[in-house]
Design a protein that fits this description.
The complex is a heterodimer. Chain A is built from 3 helices and 6 strands. In chain A, the strands form 2 sheets. A 4-stranded antiparallel sheet of chain A has the order 1-2-3-4, with helices on one face. The N and C termini of chain A lie far apart (39 Å). Chain B is built from 2 helices and 6 strands. The chains are: A alpha+beta, B alpha+beta.
């Protein structure tokens, strides 16, 4: 997708998600194309920060980094315990990753390269991807 | 002299509730709240929001108030909701497994 179209779609979807982000108590660290960086906060739980990088949105899914509140990548020890998050090292990034459709790391993992992003992109906004991660985090244990 | 909020509390309507649905694709209604019957299943207003917001597929979506997940087939009363509520509506997580 042409970069201008990617940027326009990114910016439109980021703008739409901001009211829901406010309701949920998300902290938005960054929202300039191609990066949206959001911290999930609730009660006394350790914050989970999810950084999406989507330079070719939405022809490609975003790469998703799992970070702590200070922006340091999560390790196996501090990744939330839920099937949505894979605590093992991703072959490309070497870090825990989101193991669910919508994340580049899922679609490029050798276990499910046949589960193509094209099957999901029509029904996946940036907000949807962040919401899935948020709901998994709420339901997780650690 | 009562404020508007105090007037609302002093004149409860057990038969209706003010509802807004919030998604990352927008809010329905866009401003304010819709007044709906308290005995109406929550899924009715969620479907209305999906229609107005052009949501593609909500078959695997969940509705929460705060962090409490709602039974969308049940009424607002049966979900313990009254007066005014903003429903947080969005896709459930899907674990892939690798």
């Amino acid at each position: 997708m042409h970069i201008d179209a990617a940027r326009a779609l990114f910016e439109a979807q980021v703008k739409k998600l901001e009211p829901a982000a406010k309701l949920r108590g998300w902290h938005i660290y960054e929202k300039a194309f191609p990066t949206i960086d959001v911290g999930f906060r609730h009660d006394s739980r350790p914050e989970l920060r999810v950084r999406l990088s989507a330079p070719n949105w939405n022809d490609d899914p975003p790469s998703v980094e799992l970070l702590d509140a200070t922006g340091i990548p999560l390790t196996q020890a501090n990744t939330p315990r839920h099937g949505f998050f894979n605590v093992s090292a991703h072959p490309t990034t070497g870090r825990p990753f989101i193991c669910s459709p919508g994340a580049l790391e899922y679609h490029t993992h050798p276990s499910h390269t046949s589960d193509r992003w094209e099957n999901y992109k029509a029904a996946s906004t940036l907000g949807d991807i962040l919401t899935r991660a948020y709901n998994a985090w709420l339901d997780s244990t650690r | 002299m009562n404020t508007n909020a105090q007037q609302k509390q002093s004149k409860p309507d057990d038969n209706h509730i003010e509802v807004a649905v919030m998604t990352t694709s927008g809010r329905w209604p866009t401003t304010g709240f819709d007044r709906v019957a308290s005995h109406q299943p929550a899924k009715v207003q969620l479907a209305e929001a999906a229609r107005h917001l052009g949501l593609v597929d909500t078959s695997k979506w969940i509705a929460r108030v705060g962090t409490k997940e709602l039974n969308v087939a049940a009424s607002y009363i049966d979900n313990g909701l009254a007066t005014e509520v903003e429903i947080d509506y969005g896709p459930r997580e899907a674990g892939g497994g690798a």
